[in-house]
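In this supplementary section we document a worked example of the pipeline. Step one takes a protein sequence of length 316 as its only input; no multiple sequence alignment statistics are reported here. Step two produces a three-dimensional model, which step three serialises into structure tokens for compact storage. The input and output of this example are shown verbatim.
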Amino acid sequence: MMFEGRTIAFMRFRKPMAIFSLLVVLAGVISLFTRGLNLGLDFTGGTVVELSFAHPVEQTLIQAELEKNGFHDAIVQHLGKATDIIIRMPPQKQTGNVSNSSIGEHVLAVVQTDANNPATLRQVDSVGSQVGAELYTNSMIAIALSLSLMMLYVAIRFRFKFSVGAVSSLLHDTLFTVGVFSLMGWPFDLSVLAAVLALIGYSLNDTIVVFDRIRENFRRLRKVDVIEIIDISLTETLRRTIMTVATVVLVVMALLLLGGPALKWFSVAMLVGLFAGTYSSIYIATSYALAMGLSKEDFMVVAKSEFVEEGEEIQP
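The serialised model returned by step three reads:
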């Protein structure tokens, strides 16, 4: 049975797309080695102070007071309501080995400039530089371990040729997203790391759907060449890919527009990764499998000699 309908020649553009991906990833890797990442307090260490005011307060006024009193590079954000403030600060010289409560009281005294709008200290959290470094190391280990285990899963579920393509696609998505954050100088914290790990799972799921359809068509379309089978499989899964991506993008856009500053960079990382993951499932994963020598013989069912004479095939 032959495929009915119009087939999109995806593989015709595999070389230009590979060059585009290579250039973007290479630029990101060079930026990572030269500029590095703009690591957030989760990785560099610092202090987070939460305050609650009786009346709404302007973020810029609080930031100006902190800067004037020696608290440099502080990030001031509203926490849900205009009366609740969260202040994130990198390690400060004047705090030294001062306890969390003392830091909080000091910050409270600095920002309490209006007697008609009293503030109360809600919470103070500190992350040491050593703890931040450990979090960064553990994060990189988590990414490497997840890629290795996913490669093993695809190798068992399909073929080793597919596993190389899948992991190449996932590695591409990771370097693409992290590289963009390095190039743009956007803050990289635990929420962005969570987005990267979520994107690895999302991209693998999309890749598995494509691989499963390719395997079905290899067994179903016996007289069609390999590249055409891949094009047919990608065309058949295109509608599902578009619907899935559109649904996720709507959710991520809602988080970006309505989630506030706390979810801003998580949402940005998701949007960048969704773009990379969608076309990597189409071009990167399949192109690598094709380059590994993917053929119909990889999916042929070989009959046992005691049931079928030599040279005879079992039709799946």
